[in-house]
């Protein structure tokens, strides 16, 4: 998110995690170099098979595709020459043939289920999500959940009552559980209860999405509604919380400082030959190289370099 805003402001192009992942595994990870599979010498990233790469492409279109221009829509490929070249090779020279594979659908189902459930578990454990208030269907909590669910998934919910009914269906089973009857206390008993609840929820989702040996990820509307409702809870208490919004604002400042610093002093970058190769090219290409480097940093590394660049220490972690 921080890189997306910084790069949009400076060079007018978007940063997208899916497209960056494609760039990492096909170009940036220095495991294999060109073995004359492509017309110009270049790294081949992890040198993965077409089958593996196709499975990893959840959004098999570029940032210039109309599907990427709709609000909130994602894309899987940057319109950079290196990326477009490899994308064409991936689809046997015909990028227009790109489409999701069955393996992609399986991966997305697993991804959405895992994130939805584990974010709920993490949020309750961190005492950010008020599970007792949700279980008791407190009006203030339900209305906040419903507002986000209706805003983010208007195609899945009719009204507030529709969302609240689903909240009750999922969390009502906890009404008689001691660990969910008051503020989460992180005791051994509460931890076990929380993990059991989340494990059962995961098992239910997997059972529904694979019923009768058929992948029902797209066709099971109730499953998608439930996951959207869980994501709304995470959004309310773990993403849109004022303290976390404030923290993310600070993170954007760190990212901006790093990008500007590396552009002003490219000698700080690893792989000097890479910079020399593009140093006379456009601002966008030079910025993309810097963005590749910043995106590859761990949180601790980014904070350490930020401190060296500015002389200012940053006490808060980069993630919540």
Word description of this protein:
By secondary structure, this protein is mainly α. 61% of the residues lie in helices and 0% in strands. The model has no long low-confidence stretch (mean pLDDT 89).
Q: What is the overall number of helices?
A: 15
Strand count, sense and barrel status of the largest sheet are: none
Could you report the average pLDDT, rounded to the nearest whole number?
Answer: 89
The stretches of 5 or more residues where confidence is low (pLDDT under 50) are none
What would you call the shape? globular
Quantity of strands, as a count: 0
Percentage of residues in DSSP E strands: under 5%
- By secondary-structure content and strand pairing, the structural class works out as mainly alpha
Terminal Cα span: 14 Å
Radius of gyration: 22 Å
Order of helices and strands: HHHHHHHHHHHHHHH
Percent range of helical residues: 55-70%
In short:
This protein has 320 residues and is an all-alpha fold. The protein contains 15 helices and no strands. The radius of gyration is 22 Å and the shape is globular.
Features:
15 helices; mainly alpha; 320 residues; globular; 61% helix
Write the layout of secondary structure elements.
Blueprint: H1 2-11, H2 17-28, H3 50-56, H4 66-69, H5 81-90, H6 102-125, H7 131-135, H8 139-152, H9 160-171, H10 188-209, H11 221-239, H12 242-264, H13 272-278, H14 283-295, H15 299-310
Helix pairs in contact: 1-12, 6-10, 6-11, 8-9, 8-11, 12-14, 12-15
